[in-house]
User: Fold this.
Amino acid sequence: MTTVAAYAAPAAKAPLERTTIERRAVGESDVLIDIKFAGICHSDIHQVREGWGEAIFPMVPGHEIAGVVTEVGPGVTKFRVGDRVGVGCMVDSCRECENCLRGEEQYCLKGMVGTYNAVGRDGEPTYGGYSEKIVVDENYVVRIPDGLSLDVAAPLLCAGITTYSPLRHWNAGPGKKVAVVGLGGLGHMAVKLAHAMGAEVTVLSQSLRKKDDGLKLGADHYHATSDPKTFEELAGTFDLIVSTVSAPMDFGALLSLLKVDGALVNVGAPEEPVSLNLFSVISGRKTLAGSAIGGIRETQEMLDFCAEHGIGAEIELISAAEINEAYERVLASDVRYRFVIDTATI
Assistant:
């Protein structure tokens, strides 16, 4: 066991504070990672505030982890000391079900083990990336290519893969019209990735406040959803809409923007249930879908794609002492576009 410093929420809705946690000894197939940077995801806030249900406390959030391997177990074959690596939203799964065997561990039939706010197969709670070090089985660790700096790579481990996976699954590419709803931590990555894949990209945001940013990030068009004319002008336009917003949306209005056989895919997860008139999908053979992160193989594919195309997150680097302020700013949409903690400050 190793004692490391971390930032934790002692109870639901409580401010995060500096503390210490125990990391397990490095086992046969484990790697010990010296965490350099950890992204702040809106999911962290949902879970710290129990917006998605009962949670485990104390909670050390953080599932956008970038760092360097400092020790490997005797059975490790994929990594060596000094390798630049990342850890995303999961640190284990059953490894036996059809989804795990297919490389889609995120949909493990027995439930993947979350990087934090979960219980590992050893019965111990998992603690995330707002900490100095983490021990993870090598099969749930990915390599960060040399072309990506660790600070801008960290958010790719959630925001990057969460948007890459549906774009790939629904075949975003040349000749396809893709809309991204919301230009935040996930949305800005969706725009960059869809553009790099060759799709024609439109941002749908509440206002035109971030229009210049959206166009610089790779969007071809930018429209305000607060303007009713948007829905008249764009009716029946898109092959794919990726909604990154974690608040309830007018799904009927968004579905009206799809072509026949188009898909509206949700990667933002509102805390409240949503309602839908089924005629919104029946008329047009449309799909209303959801998508989680990606499997380990696809996460590595995404990182390699980002390195090849020079894609990193747009970040604001902060010290650990600024975490609570950063949470409030995320809720106020006051970040361009991802806070990343310099873990040397923990």
Observations:
- The first strand starts at residue 2 and ends at 8.
- Residues 70 and 281 are 51 Å apart (CA to CA).
